[in-house]
Design goal:
Distance between the termini: 23 Å
Number of domains: 1
Strand content: under 5%
Helix content: over 70%
Order of helices and strands: HHHH
Radius of gyration: 15 Å
Shape: flat
Number of strands: 0
Length: 107
């Protein structure tokens, strides 16, 4: 559970760090949104270092959680209604993440 929450927080930082510059470039938001964007991306990188597994395995598993968080962002921040296929895809991604993270590994 701790790993899943850490993945989710990591994903929120990455999405916010990318979304804010998008607002500046596409929606004419203030240039000041770039400051929290940079801080958010710095937090994202730092959070990735807190994961206990090997870097490549962490990034692979993180991808599944990132997809779920991105879909939740789409719904809650951008206000776009999700389709049932979004839920199915998110579920399949989380199952893949669970296989990567939870399957016991030999030394």
């Amino acid at each position: 559970m701790k790993t899943l929450l850490l993945f989710a927080l990591t994903a929120v930082c990455e999405i916010a760090g990318c979304y804010l510059p998008w607002l500046w470039l596409k929606q004419q938001a203030s240039v000041w949104v770039l400051l929290p964007a940079a801080l958010s991306l710095a937090a994202f990188v730092w959070l990735l270092t807190l994961h206990p597994q090997a870097a490549a395995r962490t990034y692979a598993a993180y991808g599944g959680v990132y997809i779920v968080v991105a879909l939740l962002w789409l719904r809650w921040v951008e206000g776009i209604r999700l389709q049932w296929t979004d839920g199915l895809g998110a579920f399949l991604c989380l199952m893949g993440m669970a296989v990567i993270v939870l399957v016991p590994r030999g030394s």
